[in-house]
Design goal:
single chain, alpha/beta, Cobalt-precorrin-4 Transmethylase, domain 1, Methyltransferase, Cobalt-precorrin-4 Transmethylase, Domain 2, 5-stranded mixed beta sheet, 8 helices, 10 strands
């Protein structure tokens, strides 16, 4: 029976790749990668040699059909992203949806592991029995609506932001939710991992005093 394994990979520290993930990547017929160059480095670190097939946000329906055809032929495939868990704020979700529809006999199996949003929530100190994950804020259209919506949410909220927009985003958070407490995690599991706590304005000053470079997860505490 054909199988699609959804495999979580390290978000920084290679030691976070589980034994089960290594075994799975070594056994499948091919690996679907967000960026084959990034995945090649990861696989080389563990001595794994496999056929790599590019699958990312710019992949067209032709590539999707090729992947479905491989599964219909009984192949076993692993889906990986550059870092973290595929399909979480990632185009892998579209592939899983397509496989469910076009190849219903395919078994879809998660190989869990690193996830930046879950890692950040775990150290936030905020209640996480209920939380909302919002992916990345829109760059232009819908951006104002995104931050106005934050002010209406009572639960813990988590989302991602890039090095290019982190200061702008923190300013917009300050304008929309005022002094609500938040946590910002930068470069999780990497050499320069840093966690900042305070209001949006306080965290902005802390980040400026260290570095605005890196990948960020913002966790907004619940409304009092």
């Amino acid at each position: 029976m054909s199988t699609l394994y959804v495999v979580a990979t390290p978000i920084g520290n290679l030691s976070d790749l589980s034994a089960r993930a290594r075994e799975t990547l070594g056994l499948v017929d091919a690996i679907l990668c967000e960026d084959t160059r990034v995945s090649s480095k990861l696989l080389a670190a563990f001595g794994i040699q496999k056929t790599l097939v590019a699958y990312h946000q710019h992949s067209d329906m032709k590539r999707m059909k090729e992947i479905v055809a491989m599964l219909r032929d009984g192949k076993s495939l692993a889906l990986v992203t550059d870092a973290g868990t595929p399909a979480i704020s990632d185009p892998g979700g579209m592939l899983v949806e397509t496989v469910i529809r076009e190849s219903p006999e395919t078994a879809i199996i998660p190989i869990p592991g690193p996830s930046a949003v879950i890692a950040a929530l775990s150290v936030s100190g905020f209640p996480c029995d209920e939380f909302v994950f919002l992916g990345f804020p829109p760059h232009k259209k819908g951006r104002q609506t995104f931050f106005k919506r934050l002010a209406t949410m009572e639960s813990t909220v988590a989302f991602y932001e890039s090095t290019h927009r982190i200061e702008k985003t923190l300013a917009e958070i300050a304008a929309s939710v005022g002094n609500r407490e938040l946590v910002v995690c930068r470069e999780l599991t990497k050499l320069h991992e840093t966690t900042y706590r305070g209001t949006a304005n306080e965290v902005t000053e802390l980040i400026r005093s260290t570095s605005i470079k890196g990948e960020f997860v913002i966790v907004l505490g619940p409304r009092s």
